[in-house]
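Quick question: what would this complex look like in 3D?
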Amino acid sequence: MPGLGTSFGRGGATVWVPDLENADCILIEGSNFAEAHPVAFRFVMKAKERGATIIHVDPRFTRTSALADIYAPIRSGTDIAFLGGIVNYVISHEKIFREYVVAYTNASFIVSDAYRDTEDLDGLFSGYDGASRTYDTASWAFERDGQGVIATDPTLTHPRSVYQILKRHFARYTPEMVERTCGTPQAQFLQIAETLAHNSGRERTTAFAYAVGWTQHTAGVQFIRTAAIVQTLLGNMGRPGGGIMALRGHANIQGATDVPTLYDLLPGYLPMPSALRNEQTLAEYLKLNAKPTGWWAHTPKYMISLLKAFYGEHATPENDYGYAYLPQLIGDHSMLPTTFAMKDGVVKGSFVIGQNPGASGQNAELVRSAMERLDWLVNIDSYDNETVSFWRREGVDPSTIATEVFFLPAATVLEKEGTMVQTSRLLQWHDKAVEPAGDSKSDAWYFNWFMLRMKALYANSTDPKDLPILHTAWNYEHDDPHERVKGEPSVLKVLQEINGYTVADGAQVAGFSDLKDDGSTASGCWIYSGVCPDKATNRARNRDASGPYTAPNWGFAWPANRRTLYNRASAAPDGTPWSERKKYVWWDATRGEWTGIDVPDFPKTKAPSTPANKHATGMDFHGGADPFIMNLDGVAQLFVPSGLKDAPIPAHYEPLQSVVENPIYTQQSNPVLREYVRKDNAYNKPVDADYPYVLTTYRITEMSGIMTRYVPWLAELQPEAFAEIDPELAVSKGIKSGDYVVISTALGEMEARALVSGRMRPLRVNGKRVHQIGIPYNYGSQVAFARGDSVGDLIAIALDPNVSIHESKTLTCAIRKGRLLRRRPASFAQDEM
Amino acid sequence: MANGFFTDTTLCIGCKACEVACKQWNELPSDGFVFTGESYDNTSELSGTTWRHVAFVEQMAIDHQGELQDRWLMSSDVCKHCTNAGCHEACPTGAIIRNEFGAVFIQPDVCNGCGYCVVSCPFGVVDLIEKFDPDGTHYNLASLATSRLDARATAVQQSGGVAGKCTLCYDRQRLGFVPACAKACPTESIQFGDLDELRERAHARVERLSERGVSAQLYGADDVGGGIGALNAFFLLTDRPETYNLPAQPVLPSTRQPAGYTAAAVAALGLALAGWMIFRNA
Amino acid sequence: MPDLSECRERDDVPTYYERPLLKAPHWEWNVVTYLFLGGIMGGLGLIQLIAHPERPQERRLKRTVRITSFILAAGNPAILITHLGRPERFLNMLRIVKIKSPMSLGVWGLVLYSGAAGANVVRELAIDGVLPRWMRLLAPGFLAPLQALLGAFTAGYTGVLLSATANPFWGSGKRHIPAASVCSGLASASALASLLSTFEGNHAVVHKLERLEMVAGAAELLILNDFKRAAGAYGAPFFKGKRGERLLTYTVVAGTLAPLALNLIGQAVKLPKPIDAVRTTLASALTLVGGYVLRESLIEAGKESARDPRAAFRQPR
Ligand SMILES: Nc1nc2c(c(=O)[nH]1)N[C@H]1C(S)=C(S)[C@@H](COP(=O)(O)OP(=O)(O)OC[C@H]3O[C@@H](n4cnc5c(=O)[nH]c(N)nc54)[C@H](O)[C@@H]3O)O[C@H]1N2
Ligand SMILES: Nc1nc2c(c(=O)[nH]1)N[C@H]1C(S)=C(S)[C@@H](COP(=O)(O)OP(=O)(O)OC[C@H]3O[C@@H](n4cnc5c(=O)[nH]c(N)nc54)[C@H](O)[C@@H]3O)O[C@H]1N2
Ligand code: SF4
Ligand code: SF4
Ligand code: SF4
Ligand code: SF4
Ligand code: SF4
Ligand SMILES: [Mo]
């Protein structure tokens, strides 16, 4: 989540769900909060009961819209224009929280005079290289004096100050332009802008909530960046009822980024070593990644402790703590590029665990056909699904497929113990409720077994390349003899190791401040440190809701059981609360420490008056009024000079497949987005007369992912894949609610039932009538109670340059009444002939 | 002291958790897999095996320009556990009782499937479960094979139907638990508790909403008329009852009995007299 | 008077996707038959009382009627059981007596009726010497009026059973359906009795029975006519459309008017015996068919009425 990471320092939701109750206004945009997060939505409802204004901006009028006070329609893929309009509104109407902006952001920083904005280059920033389709970000840097100190102008009037650049950059994002680009009526846009402005400042706060409605775009990171800019200008970050609620998806998706399943990260957001950077030794790695200033100056402690956790006694100062055992990146190994590599015969084997890309994936047929080229596929899942059964899908001949498939039964969540880390960064332990059915095993069981098998297989090897296996510390034997007999490892021991311990005596550390860079401590993921401060305590088990509403004894929120991030910003620079009403964390001068109802996100005894030392390193670089401790400069970044591949400040680009030309710039879409132009990934043309409608995809409350279609109780609620169509389009196509329709793109076709509804409304965009069609992604071809095609078969892969996320929220399509006869997408049939 | 439900439709997010929680707790089968094309409602009605049903009503201003605000009303319907319950009065076997929690409860082992309650509910709630297919496509939870579900399935299959409707989670209440539907509701749209307290809360809620410019009405919190009295499951609505498929003028069936018996008696007496006269002469 | 105008004439009464509010009865031929036979049984109860005990032909009628009514009373539960599924399920009805439930009262009425009818049959057979004479004492004299009373109830309750439901059409006939049920029951009973008497050669009572049948039939027609007026829109499923035509053809014309005419002829003209027997047979059969179709139409119209949400929104008081 570099959108939040580059702006504020950490790539996680800045707030926790129950705090939404304290908001005076909640803008939900890029999420269908009520449908995809119904339980969390109770806190939105509570805020509403307390008088907050709830706003929903979405291409569709959803169950969230139904409960909102204000709903505004938007053309999918145009949120930068919408939010950019808000930025323009708050700046031009002097609605920014100036005191906050001056003190806590980089608004006053002066940008290099080499910098050129999209306003000068018609949609491009300086440094663009058309041949490689990349930016050289050197010109986006801040101006520094001879000693390297950044030039600033606290009056915010310098023409090259971030504030003035923002002002010029967004000046064109007027309400008319918003209406022309997004299709959102001006009146509604202005109502929202005014409501946000009214509910910000000292006395009031506004919270934003988004999810994959903002991320699954080729400029998704910049969507979130725009939101970050709005919330920073309005002074809502780090304050109760404020911040940005990034709603996470699957129950443990936050955990899966913290202790990541992402290819380019190590646990705790430490970068994965790369062969493409100068990181061949630990010293080089630390030189590159331990930031000189701010919290990340602690990187060596976390990295070395991690290596100690990985390699135990084999991690010594002499061998760089086993640094060389870590794999190194040689490119983009994220899922979708890897799928192409499988299809092209580069990747020979694959593990698919707890995921069903054969149905949920973009260009799902590419995924399934790629599996045909594998030597082997291991799938651990609770159900037979499109992925593991790719070889017997309609239209293929199993006898021609050589892939060896291993299908291993997975225990479900109720059949195993462990933690899940939810959207509020809260670790919550769950016990096993029942024994796994049949031969099912927990995922931990499989990993434990794989590792022990490998260790046994390589036991006699003397080949240095096998050392990573032999030297990996692996001792998770369960204390409970019943579990031990079954081969279940102790996940509690894993959590204890993640918390960290002192190597000498094996005693748990109390928190990450105890971690050292001399090999005397080990920790599997520094940000979770503190969850098991001693062997007898597992704070993830805590279920005590008493105390202040932050409920510090309920679960454990990383980091350090802190609920709201950057909460130093809930107090004014002098350490007093901005207002009595929005009191949260403040400086207690008598005791000489930060206090409040949450764990302060700040060095506990650093007084507000502590001056910044611009020549110091680490945390001393920051002053006592620099709340964004993870950032180099201690402030929120309105302008991001480095760390993003596509822009220092967001500019509106059209989705790769759009129904209109970019109304704002000549540059049609994100210049550095990643395309895969090949026959089995056919795109519609950027503005394609054959595919005149916007297609957007999402999930529905009644289904979770694609796995719940086997549950009859859920299947009866939404038994078939459907397409939501506005009445005007339906009439013009002769479609009635309940009819079968075929939706198509250059890549493929699918069949669905029509759901004609006034909740879908045609928009006027740049003088053109635009119809949007919505299709839930929760269906697939496998036989189940709920039936339907997978919308993934329509979506060609195009990626955001920063995080390789696909653009599945916006593309173009055609629709006709009728049913589908041929099931296999045409583009693939040709490909195989 | 009677317990009941206050269902506040202004808080309903249409998640259908109540519908699913009810089926899960009561081990009821699905009613089939039918796509209706009627908003997000594919279960359509309460039935012998669907004891909570969430209605979806789309009220979208046609041109999206006028004053009219777009609304998508959602409301979770359930047995009303009427003060004077048509089903209860009608049941000839005594299968339907009013239990110690004030709920109208059907004892499945006493019910003989006569179907008289079905036509005696002014709200169209209770229905006969005529088919129950534990092995077929409607049901696939092998792990529950030995549960009471099978017992019910057998009862239904061998004897041609038993009446089914909300039990107000009698079994859960006995254990001191809140009914499954109320427990699952994330937004407290379904509130369970002592009826006097709920009624008080409901009236206060209407007032609060009206302060905010929302015109709401209670349905069944007080006497609904027709002899039924108040409903132990009552609702806060923002449109007329018919919108939610609730009757505006329900009538307790038994109120028609005196007239019926009298008419029958008059007819019988008249005819007997005529007959007597006919047969009197030789 | 029930008035649906408030919902019928204004198109803006919302419905829920035109879906029914109420549940339709799950009642098929077995319940129709049960109601039909219940009516006949009740009517026979009356006839066994009013037939004169001193006149031999009427005594014979009494005997026939008592035996027939007993057979019907004993057989009717079997019909109900085909609806309930299992014989034991009938017994569940005998767990309690519930004044508020016409079905409960009706079943008890049926049980008591069959008791009274049974005793009266024993009495007949004892008088005839088929059974020992002392067994007469098992049926004291008050059982005859009791059977008649129970009979009137059994014929009437089938109407209350329908009208005292939430079904809008049925409810709209809260007086008419019970009254019509009694009339139709007696008409059918008379028809059955004249049929049996004709077969027995007991011609002397037939004309009396036919007069009774005519009175009952005429009363039924008057009641149905008033029902149509009073039910207004609620009555549509019964009086209008295909079902209305069927009712008119089978119950009104063929089932009441035609036998009325045939019986009038029988009363007015003295026909030769065999021809008169044919006339009686025809008239009786038509009346019985009319009675069955009346019950069937009531049930089927109830199903249709239950499917009309607008009628269900404003239920007749
Ligand atoms: N019931 C249920 N809940 C779930 C899941 C599930 O499968 N079922 N999945 C979980 C997972 S994995 C995730 S990631 C989350 C996702 O949670 P959400 O992101 O909230 O869910 P989505 O339905 O994917 O998309 C949200 C909304 O984005 C809108 N949208 C599409 N394009 C745009 C756009 O360009 N701009 C704006 N503003 N809105 C747009 C869609 O119309 C949709 O209403 O949900 C989680 N919760
Ligand atoms: N078009 C379109 N495509 C999308 C999206 C979209 O909005 N639009 N959303 C995307 C998003 S945000 C996501 S997160 C993905 C989700 O896509 P997937 O993760 O592929 O979808 P699920 O159906 O949630 O798959 C989870 C699988 O895990 C299995 N499973 C469940 N529990 C366990 C367990 O404990 N262990 C193991 N080993 N297996 C288990 C289930 O049986 C199921 O097969 O879909 C993405 N695809
Ligand atoms: S499924 Fe779980 S994570 Fe999703 S809303 Fe329900 S409780 Fe929350
Ligand atoms: S709503 Fe119907 S089923 Fe429920 S108690 Fe009232 S009459 Fe009985
Ligand atoms: S079907 Fe069962 S519950 Fe309903 S009235 Fe008959 S016996 Fe009573
Ligand atoms: S109270 Fe229990 S039985 Fe009734 S609807 Fe709720 S969950 Fe179902
Ligand atoms: S659980 Fe609550 S919010 Fe969800 S549909 Fe039912 S009543 Fe509505
Ligand atoms: Mo997700």
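Answer marked as accepted. Residues 260 and 482 of chain A are 30 Å apart (CA to CA).
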